[in-house]
Amino acid sequence: MSETIFSRIINREIPADIVHEDDQCLAFRDINPQAPVHILIIPKKAIPTVNDITEEDEKTVGHLYTVAARIAKEEGIDGDGFRTVMNCNEHGGQSVYHIHLHLIGGKALGWPPFPNG
Ligand code: 5GP
Prior knowledge:
- This protein is an alpha+beta fold.
- It has helices at residues 5-10, 58-75, 89-92; strands spanning 18-21, 25-29, 37-43, 82-85, 101-105.
- The longest helix has 18 residues, at 58-75.
- Bound molecules: guanosine-5'-monophosphate.
- Residues 5, 16, 28, 30-32, 40, 87, 93-96 line the site of guanosine-5'-monophosphate (5GP).
């Protein structure tokens, strides 16, 4: 499986502003935040895209959401709300091929998210 920038962050080969780590996942602040809170929650298992998620990954992928809820509370955005997004492939706007849950909040977010059609 090809190495991505995110496996290098997991392995501490490049720095990141880490907000949570456990045996299954790592969460860190996005280097190019789109909102006051923009955190990426990634499994330690390198799954390239949503297309590659299998039944054996269900616990791990579900865990990303448990951690998202915990971080949202810690960041104080649980009450006002936030968005969780996992982009897939080119049309989804995926740029790093190691699945990651974006946790975005701290301001009112536009919807629909594709203003250019
Ligand atoms: P995608 O476009 O694949 O859904 O999201 C990838 C995200 O990773 C982008 O929001 C981008 O800003 C972020 N990102 C890319 N490289 C790095 C990095 O080296 N460090 C951090 N913290 N975020 C990164």
